[in-house]
Amino acid sequence: MNHLIAPSILAADFANMQRDVEMMNNSQADWMHFDVMDGMFVPNISFGFPVLKAVKKYALKPIDVHLMIVDPDRYLKAFAEEGAYSITVHYEACPHLHRTVQAIKELGCKASVAINPHTPAMLLKDIIADLDMVLVMSVNPGFGAQKFIPHSYTKIAEVRELAKNVNPGLLIEVDGGVDNTNAAQLLAAGANVLVAGNSVFSAPNPTAAITALKQVTW
Predict the structure, then answer these.
(1) What is the 3-state secondary structure (H, E, C) of 16-85?
(2) 71 among known catalytic residues
(3) Is the per-residue pLDDT at 144 higher than 70?
(4) N or C: lower Cβ tally within 10 Å for the chain?
C-alpha cells in the first residue's frame, strides 16, 4: 500500500489553527494527528475536547487521536463523539487492553495501540490480531522536536513480523523525529503511516514538506 502522512497538530501554530488545518486539507496529508497529553502519563499537557471540536469544524481529513493519558477508557466515548477517526491508547496505560480495544471498535473508531521506546514489541503478541494499527514511538512521548531513537527501525520490523501471519494488513505508524532523512528507512522497516510535526510545521513551505514525505520511495 502507499504510505500515509499524518501531520501532527501539536506542532501547528495554535494562534492560527484554522489556517494550519486548511493547509493540511489542501495538502497531500492523509490524516491529521491529534496528541492528547494529561501531564501525568507524560510530562506535558496539550489539549482536549474543545480543541478537537474546533479542529473537526474545519478538518476534511480523518483525525487520528493519540491518547497519552492515564485511564483512557474514561474518555473514549467523548473522543469518538467529537470526531476521532482512530483512537490510539498506550500499552503502558491500559491494564485491560483487550477490553479497551474492543470498546474503541464498538464506538466505530479504528483501534490502535502505542508502545513507548522502552516497551518490547513482543508484548503486543496477544493483541496484535485485534488491532487496526500499532504506533511505534520513536521518541519518548511528551514533547515535540525530539531526536529520533535509531532502535525504532528494529522495533518496527519486529511489529511487522508479529503481524505477518495474523494481521497482514496492520498499519504501523511511527511518531517522533520523522523527516526526509529517515522516512525511507522507516518505510523499508515496515512502517506505513508517518507522523510528522516539527519537520512539517517548521518548514518554510509546510505543504511542500508534506508532499516530499508523501513522495518518499524505498
Answers:
(1) HHHHHHHHHHCCCCCCEEEEEEECCCCCCECCCHHHHHHHHHHCCCCEEEEEECCCHHHHHHHHHHCCEE
(2) no
(3) no
(4) N
